[in-house]
Known about the structure:
The structure holds 2 protein chains of 2 kinds.
Chain A: E1 3-5, E2 10-14, E3 19-21, E4 24-26, E5 32-39, E6 46-52, E7 60-61, E8 64-69, E9 74-79, E10 88-96, E11 107-108, E12 112-117
Parallel strand pairs in A: 2-12
Antiparallel strand pairs in A: 1-4, 3-9, 5-6, 5-10, 7-8, 8-9, 10-11, 10-12
Chain B: E1 5-7, E2 10-13, E3 19-24, E4 31-38, E5 42-50, E6 53-57, E7 64-68, E8 74-78, E9 87-94, E10 104-105, E11 109-113
Amino acid sequence: AQKITQTQPGMFVQEKEAVTLDCTYDTSDQSYGLFWYKQPSSGEMIFLIYQGSYDEQNATEGRYSLNFQKARKSANLVISASQLGDSAMYFCAMREGFRIQGAQKLVFGQGTRLTINP
Amino acid sequence: DSGVTQTPKHLITATGQRVTLRCSPRSGDLSVYWYQQSLDQGLQFLIHYYNGEERAKGNILERFSAQQFPDLHSELNLSSLELGDSALYFCASSRGGREDQPQHFGDGTRLSIL
């Protein structure tokens, strides 16, 4: 069964520093996708970045990048030059390949609460 | 703005009651997913519809049901409500079922059972 592990319940970082949020996953499938979402205190879920299991390059979206290490089954989110508005819960999620029945669901980790200090 | 619309934003009701949560997906998205977020269970997948057909069920209670209509909006019906049903309910949508398509979430409906 799919499983996502986020080992950092909370992180505190100074503004403008880079931060890495850890995510490890477990799957027996060769084809899967990894996603990161941000949930501010207001509650909405915001899609940040996607990494496919067959992608050879790490995904990047603005200040967000994904450090994908397939052999280690890790997909860490890196936020460069952190801002006060980055304070939020961050969720790592996985979706297995299309050919698996019911695979379209996302399985989420427990999340990491990131606090950016001025 | 994700383009996914959920109504209402807040619902307060009593045990034993029935409520309906509504979701309008992003324009062009055929897949609708429902998730429940609670403090003890985290984010849990409930059910997935694609173009009006149920595709997958997750940890959805028998007291809960959902449907997707021809105009692609979806409703999640929760009945015989219990205190433990208090949670944030999200609807998400995507173009189809490929693993590289992100699911875009609505703002959620916060359900409080008194």
